Backbone:
């Protein structure tokens, strides 16, 4: 007979369902690591990549099963709801697309496959936990799991000095940022006596918000702002993105950002009151401006997209600057939609860059892309779709992503921040269109070999293109789900109020 003490120590089986995606991804990652030494390099490239991809599909299936059992688990440290399920699907889908786009890349770059695929799965485990954790200590552990994997992945082109430099720079600066986050958690515990987000929210509702809580939240924002590549914590981004493998950059620029945004949404909206958290406003304005101005002078496509990533972090942060509770659901829903749209277009863009770069990533400048519209029309057309979406052109997901964010900001009376965002969007259009002009309106000055697109890269590009166009034509379904899920993040006293049901206007469906 199991004693009551043992029953308390051993969680109920139902609780494991709420971490099922993490368990599945971990098991597949361990399997890859065990099989890697038993296979030669050529066989391992195909077999281990296939196992990794199957692992992500199993993770998506596990996420669906997990979403059928919403609730708290493991001493109320994990919360499964529509919000956490959304980000689980997003980060696992990103991992699946990156694995597909890496299949050919690893063979061309002569990179050992086993640990590469395992690290992507392990990193995804940390990102999934970040999206469902409601305990600050667990969030810190999940952040470390995610960070350690990406630190190693950034330096995977070991024969390139730039790759080693990018890994080292990412590790050193990331360690400092993580220390800030941990110090913020300590301050939060000192101010409220708890590290559970729900308990902290209830304590602040009853006792007010002391200064120490604002300081702790600001320190945690430093740690998460580093992951978001938000200014002024962006200085690592161009160098790290330039040196890291292109598919890894597609992974780093989307999945960790999505997970960090999920954490930031819980912290800012459930713990703090955004009306008094002015650093978010400043970080959003700085990120948009510095990112777009920095991208204007870049000739390396990876560095250009790195500065673009900083700018898009700023657009996303606009959703966090909502000042009154009735506008919070709009901001949360807009941020969730933006994260999904940005993931589709950015993973696709870096998949094209990784395929076109060839061995040693020697073709990554704007000059190398001259005449691509004639030498590889399909590849140029796909990249053009992603670039137009990054600009925010209609019938692409990027258009509605910016539309919802700026609409939510206007409804919250953030006129100046919206104006800064619109002006920066116009500036950003220049350097994106510059790439398109180079591909279609310039004669090539040197011969750049363009290899045939493999099945893996082609599938990843097809999925990203479909998602980008789908979100641009039929955005309502994803937005509606995001609006429903936003209520799961709201504090109890706000989520239950009548004013919390305000919605961003949906786009009416056209009738034949």
Residues:
């Amino acid at each position: 007979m199991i004693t009551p003490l043992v029953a308390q120590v051993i969680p109920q089986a139902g609780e494991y369902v709420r971490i099922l995606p993490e368990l599945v991804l971990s098991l597949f990652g361990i399997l890859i690591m065990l099989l890697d030494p038993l296979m030669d390099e050529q066989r391992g490239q195909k077999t281990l990549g296939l196992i990794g991809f199957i692992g992500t599909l199993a993770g998506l299936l596990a996420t669906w099963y997990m979403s059928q059992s919403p609730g708290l688990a493991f001493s109320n440290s994990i919360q499964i709801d529509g919000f956490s399920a959304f980000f689980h699907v997003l980060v696992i889908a990103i991992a699946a697309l990156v694995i597909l786009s890496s299949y050919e890349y690893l063979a061309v770059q002569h990179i050992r496959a086993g640990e590469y695929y395992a690290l992507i799965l392990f990193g995804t485990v940390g990102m999934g936990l970040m999206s469902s954790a409601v305990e600050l200590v667990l969030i810190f552990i999940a952040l470390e799991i995610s960070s350690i994997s990406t630190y190693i992945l950034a330096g995977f082109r070991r024969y390139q000095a730039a790759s080693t430099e990018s890994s080292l720079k990412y590790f050193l600066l990331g360690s400092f940022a993580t220390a800030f986050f941990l110090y913020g958690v300590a301050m939060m515990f000192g101010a409220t006596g708890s590290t559970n987000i729900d308990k902290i929210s209830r304590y602040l509702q009853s006792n007010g918000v002391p200064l120490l809580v604002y300081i702790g939240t600001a320190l945690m924002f430093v740690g998460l702002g580093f992951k978001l590549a938000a200014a002024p914590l962006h200085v690592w981004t161009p160098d790290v993105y330039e040196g890291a493998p292109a598919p890894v950059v597609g992974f780093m620029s989307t999945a960790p950002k999505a997970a960090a945004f999920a954490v930031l949404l819980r912290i800012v909206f459930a713990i703090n009151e955004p009306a008094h958290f002015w650093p978010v406003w400043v970080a959003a304005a700085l990120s948009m401006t510095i990112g777009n101005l920095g991208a204007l002078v870049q000739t390396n496509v990876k560095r250009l997209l790195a500065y673009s990533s900083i700018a898009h972090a700023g657009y996303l942060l606009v959703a966090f600057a909502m000042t009154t509770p009735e506008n919070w659901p709009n901001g949360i829903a807009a941020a969730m939609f933006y994260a999904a749209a940005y993931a589709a277009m950015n993973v696709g863009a870096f998949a094209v860059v990784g395929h076109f770069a060839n061995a040693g990533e020697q073709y990554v400048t704007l000059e190398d892309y001259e005449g691509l519209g004639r030498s590889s029309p399909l590849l140029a057309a796909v990249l053009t779709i992603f670039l137009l979406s990054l600009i925010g052109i209609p019938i692409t997901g990027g258009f509605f992503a910016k539309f919802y964010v700026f609409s939510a900001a206007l409804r919250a009376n953030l006129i100046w921040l919206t104006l800064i965002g619109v002006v920066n969007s116009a500036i950003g259009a220049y350097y994106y269109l510059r790439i398109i002009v180079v591909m279609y309106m310039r004669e090539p000055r040197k011969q750049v070999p363009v290899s045939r697109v493999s099945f893996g890269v082609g599938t990843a590009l097809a999925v990203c293109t479909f998602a980008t166009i789908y979100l641009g034509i039929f955005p309502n379904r994803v937005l509606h789900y995001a609006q429903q899920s936003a209520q799961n993040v709201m504090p109890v006293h706000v989520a239950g109020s009548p004013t919390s049901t305000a919605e961003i206007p949906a786009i009416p469906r056209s009738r034949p």
About this structure: Residues 495-502, 508-512 have pLDDT under 50 and may be disordered. The two ends are 67 Å apart (CA to CA). The chain has one domain: 14-501. Residues 14-501 form one domain.
